[in-house]
Design brief:
Structural class of chain B: alpha/beta
Distance between the termini of chain A: 61 Å
Structural class of chain A: alpha/beta
CATH superfamily of chain A: HUPs
Bound molecules: flavin-adenine dinucleotide, adenosine monophosphate
Order of helices and strands of chain A: EEEEEHEHEHHEHEEEEHEEEH
Shape of chain A: globular
Strand content of chain B: 25-35%
Oligomer: heterodimer
Number of helices of chain B: 9
Number of strands of chain B: 18
Number of helices of chain A: 7
Helix content of chain B: 25-40%
Number of domains of chain A: 1
Number of domains of chain B: 2
CATH architecture of the largest domain in chain B: 3-Layer(aba) Sandwich
CATH topology of chain A: Rossmann fold
Radius of gyration of chain A: 22 Å
Order of helices and strands of chain B: EEEHEHEHEHEEEEEEEEHEHEHEHEH
Radius of gyration of chain B: 22 Å
CATH architecture of chain A: 3-Layer(aba) Sandwich
């Protein structure tokens, strides 16, 4: 059995940053493995540990800089990785979920997995749509926002919980093969062991271009264009206390007392 | 342009976001002088249609198939309805269920999809406003297409009111049962436990800024000093540091205390959904740009490890 896990490297902005045109300068950004994908990787590794002959392959659409992040996934137990990149992707601008799904579909065709796990959303641009779009593109079943997963490969069914709003979970049976978008909290992601980190260095990390995947640059055509990037106007009217921690704490304490807090 | 907006219901009730997509849909239709159509699929569609018949709705298509949400039914019904009504814009709620069918519908119709919109400008060209980097930055996306799908963020548009004179039109969707590969078997309430954060007057709420489980001691000490209850953002619960019934937010509890003190919480939209109704919101965060300050009434921009012990000391 083969489990394909989509893995994204996400950017977070520093406390202070500047916007230059349609981008934030790289010096204000730090990069990491997407939180949701960390849970998806762990779910896949747990599946591989619970049965014989399971291979866990990660796929990332990302530049050379993402390899450090991909090695993290390998250190946590994925067996090998595919990274898709070329000049056309590098200059494509916005990769919307449909575009990513087109590229990922080609990888699915090459790899022929039995199960695909993605994160619910990417922490940076947060479309929350790549997994379900991919499922539809390859004609598989799917479930979005999965926070419990029980796989019955013999019956060809995944029993999942989908986490809805308001503390309600839906229990659903999904026919395999399927794409499941994994929610945080589904498991307890492991830290990479020193041994894992060492082994990750020698695991396969294959780079594929669009043409390797039988695609051409037309696959990247998207009708979406980013037209502005700005800091939202703060709607807040917050009173911000200034001064040392003792001073601000003193002012807040006075406010809280005024509201009858801590006066019991 | 004609807009087709999709209502959402669960366990017999329309969800509030349904009335918000009506408002967003009416705005988009107005921008071009077009009509607003609604789709309501499954459950007691007739009574849902009556409730949804608010001012500005031109037509409501009822699809009487099944009781609860089934993404396969939604995807089939909406692609068929799309062909019948020929709208230019599909609007769906950006909810857990919305994100379980809208991407599939857009993919099947081969139309672009923009999710989690906080603004939709359907004038000459469709321009969608959305947030990036945990709400710290906003962006606009221009969509160069005749037809598109957008999911709208809950609580961003006001609920539609008034009474409309929409025509209510049963739509006879031809559902291919053999293509339905996911079956909803039930619902479970999570939580329980002995503390009901929904009942607390004062909540001291802790987020990822606390860094380590052991550091929760300073939060508990503050809560004790204030005679308050401890709640948390999701990562604290995901890490197993506090039980699930302490989680505030979209997938946790909605709380409305007199005072909510958010400590080391950034203010992600899914967290804010659970606490924006608090009377007084206080935020302690060392990032001046943290979105939590947008909804806070009082703020301290500083290291929580300095402020929290100092605040506790004030009450001892
Ligand atoms: C479908 C779905 C449902 C979700 N449901 C929920 C939900 O119900 N509840 C919920 O909370 N989240 C929910 N989330 C997750 C949400 O998107 C965020 O990931 C989460 O709320 C972030 O939690 P946080 O603010 O504690 O962490 P972060 O976003 O990591 O913020 C930590 C904050 O701490 C500050 N900080 C760090 N160090 C210090 C210090 N020393 N002193 C002061 N401040 C410091 C930082 O500046 C930062 O602002 C959901 C997500 C999805 C996709
Ligand atoms: N560039 C990418 N490479 C690989 N996987 C991705 C990429 N972008 C998104 N994904 C996957 O799709 C999920 C949802 O992303 P999004 O739809 O962008 O919010 C992420 O958690 C990843 O698992």
């Amino acid at each position: 059995m083969k489990v394909l896990v989509t893995v994204k490297e996400v950017a977070a902005v520093d406390d202070e940053f500047e916007i230059d045109g349609l981008a934030i300068d790289d010096r204000y950004l730090s990069y990491d493995l997407n939180e949701w994908d960390e849970y998806a990787i762990e779910a896949a590794v747990q599946i591989s540990e619970a049965r014989e002959d399971v291979e866990v392959v990660t796929v990332t659409v990302g530049g050379p800089d993402t390899e450090e992040t991909i090695r993290q996934a390998l250190a946590k137990g994925a067996d090998r990785a595919v990274r898709v990149w070329d000049d056309a992707i590098a200059s494509a601008g916005l990769l919307d979920p449909a575009t990513k799904a087109t590229v990922l579909s080609a990888v699915v065709e090459e790899e022929d997995p039995d199960l695909i796990l993605t994160g619910v959303q990417a922490a940076d641009d947060g479309f929350g749509a790549t997994g379900v779009t991919l499922a539809s593109a390859i004609g598989w079943e799917w479930a979005a926002v999965v926070n419990s997963l029980d796989l019955d490969t013999e019956a060809g069914v995944a029993s999942v919980h989908r986490e809805l709003e308001g503390g309600v979970e839906e229990t659903t049976e999904v026919d395999l093969p399927a794409v499941l978008t994994i929610q945080t909290g589904i498991n307890d992601p492991r830290y990479a062991s020193l041994r894992g980190i060492r082994q990750a260095q020698s695991k396969e990390l294959a780079v594929q271009s669009l043409s390797d995947l039988g695609l051409d640059a037309g696959a990247l055509d998207s009708p979406m264009e980013q037209t502005s990037l700005y800091e939202p106007e703060t709607e807040g009217e917050a009173t911000v206390y200034e001064g040392s921690a003792e001073e601000t704490a003193g002012e807040l304490a006075a406010l809280l007392r005024e509201k009858g807090v801590g006066e019991a | 342009m004609t807009v087709l907006a999709v209502a959402e219901h669960r366990r017999g009730d329309l969800r509030p976001v349904s009335y918000e997509v009506v408002t967003a849909g009416r705005e988009a239709a107005d921008a071009t002088g077009g009509d607003l159509h609604l789709a309501v699929i499954g459950g007691d569609v007739e009574s849902f249609a009556e409730d949804l018949n608010r001012e500005g709705v031109d037509a409501i298509h009822t699809v009487a198939v099944g009781e609860e949400f089934d993404h396969g039914v939604y995807a089939q019904a909406l692609t068929q309805l799309w062909a019948d009504v020929e709208p230019s814009l599909l609007l769906a709620p950006n909810t857990v269920n919305g994100l379980d069918y809208a991407p599939a519908v857009a993919e099947r119709l081969d139309i672009p999809l923009v999710t989690d919109a906080v603004g939709v400008d359907a004038g000459e060209e469709l321009v969608v406003t959305r947030e990036l980097y945990g709400s710290k930055v906003e962006t606009t996306l221009a969509v160069d297409a005749d037809r598109a799908a957008v999911t709208v963020r809950p609580s961003e548009w006001a609920a539609a009111e008034g009474h409309g004179d929409a025509t209510i039109e049963p739509f006879d969707a031809d559902i291919d049962e053999s293509a339905l590969g996911a079956r909803v078997t039930g619902f479970q309430e999570v939580g329980g436990g002995d503390v009901d954060i929904g009942e607390a007057d004062v909540l001291v709420s802790v987020g990822r800024g606390i860094e380590e489980e052991d550091n929760l001691d300073i939060i508990q000490a503050l809560a004790d000093a204030l005679d308050a209850t401890v709640s948390a953002s999701r990562p604290i619960v995901d890490n197993g540091w506090l039980p699930k019934d302490r989680q505030v937010g979209q997938s946790g509890k909605v709380v409305t205390p007199d005072v909510y003190i958010a400590i080391g919480i950034s203010g992600a939209v899914q967290h804010v959904a659970g606490m924006k109704g608090a009377d007084t919101i206080v935020a302690i965060n060392n990032d001046p740009n943290a979105p939590i300050f947008d909804i806070a009434d009082y703020g301290i921009v500083d290291d929580l490890f300095d402020v929290v012990p100092a605040l506790t000391a004030e009450f001892q």
